Amino acid sequence: MSDTWTVAGHTFTSRLIVGTGKYKDFAENAAAVEASGAEIVTVAVRRVNISDPSQPVLMDYIDPKKVTYLPNTAGCFTADDAIRTLRLAREAGGWDLVKLEVLGEARTLYPNMRETLEATEVLAKEGFKPMVYCVDDPIAAKQLEEAGAVAIMPLGAPIGSGLGLQNQVTIRLIVEGASVPVLVDAGVGTASDASVAMELGCDGVLMNTAIAEAKDPVRMARAMKLAVEAGREAYLAGRMQKRRYADPSSPLAGLI
Amino acid sequence: MSANDTLEITINGEIRRQSAGSVADLVRALGLDPAKVAVERNREIVPRSTLADVAVAQGDKFEIVHFVGGG
User: Fold this and answer.
1) Using CA atoms, how far apart are residues A91 and A121, in angstroms rounded to an integer?
2) Do B45 and A58 touch (CB under 8 A)?
3) A99 annotated active-site
């Protein structure tokens, strides 16, 4: 049986969601998405350049018919701004599956959970399916789920920091308590970080900078694909118990 | 077309003079593909299906957005 995951009725095989920001150009971005095997990409909603409307656009390089666009609310600091952005996103793309993030401050890009909860409630009432970026707090995760979040997306470390999962205990507690998919969103720096998230039982991992700022983004995208798969397999296989001391792998009997 | 037919409106924060017409006309006049953008008029979404039916009025404030790369 294939190992798939489902969010708000949409089923996916790849457990890696990648961002589309910070790339050198659209061609490199598209090549990285291809190498990552991702079936979902996050996108931002911004004003069109009315003085130069002929500039190339993302949709010319990454086909929304082949890859699911997940519009985000990056840069929004209030529930109102985030809701307004996603209403526009729904009109632009026709999708109700969206990524909600309401930021608290520019320095840490930590989420403002009060505004995030409020926005989740409003969006759910308007028929959106919000996947929600949040703090790694198991209680907040529960509250978001009650408010209508279709996926819980705790940060592993600050956005764009590449520091790796700073609190594996809270991520595990969120996974254990959730009845919707849990994806680590933000903080992954290299392949092993993605594996750690998957080994904790997360349904997926979302990342942007770790791939876009690698020296070879396309190669890193492939590394992340393998890391997510490896971590998932390890989680399903069930790891050995840790021991405090050594335990030989070769038999002691028959020693010369 | 006389100067009387032009309207002063705001698009993405820029004040512009546009000739009268529908929102769909406006989007096309800007060189944009209506299928690839979303339009907000005075803080209300203009559904794509009604772009041709809604007339641009003097003083309207538009936001016209599309998808760009982001994380």
Assistant:
1) 20
2) no
3) yes
Query: What digits encode the pLDDT tens for the residues A159-186?
Result: 999 999 999 999 999 999 999 999 999 9
pLDDT digits (tens, 9 = 90+) for A98-145: 999 999 999 999 999 999 999 999 999 999 999 999 999 999 999 999
Q: How confident is the model at residue B36 (pLDDT cuts 50, 70, 90)?
A: confident
Exactly one of A24, A99, A129, A242 is catalytic; which is it?
Answer: A99
- Please give the full DSSP string across chain A, using - where no structure is assigned: ----EEETTEEES--EEE---S-SSHHHHHHHHHHHT-SEEEEEEEE--TT-TTS--HHHHS-TTTSEEEE--TT--SHHHHHHHHHHHHHHH---EEEE--BS-TTT--B-HHHHHHHHHHHHHTT-EEEEEE-S-HHHHHHHHHHT-SEEEE-SSSTT-----S-HHHHHHHHHH-SS-BEEES---SHHHHHHHHHTT-SEEEESHHHHTSSSHHHHHHHHHHHHHHHHHHHHH-PPPP-SS---SS-STT--
Rounded Cα distance between A157 and B66, Å, is 29
Q: Give yes or no for residue B3 having a pLDDT over 80.
A: no
CA nearest to B15 within chain A: A50
- Which of A104, A87, A103 is closest to A95 using CA atoms? A87
* pLDDT band of A190, cuts 50, 70, 90: very high
Q: Do B70 and A91 touch (CB under 8 A)?
A: no
Give the N- to C-terminal CA distance of chain B in Å, as an integer: 46
Q: Which amino acid is at A10?
A: H
Q: How far is CA A118 from CA A105, A150, B26, B43, B45, in A?
A: 17, 15, 35, 20, 21
B52 and A CB contact within 8 Å: no
Nearest-by-CA chain B residue for A92: B38
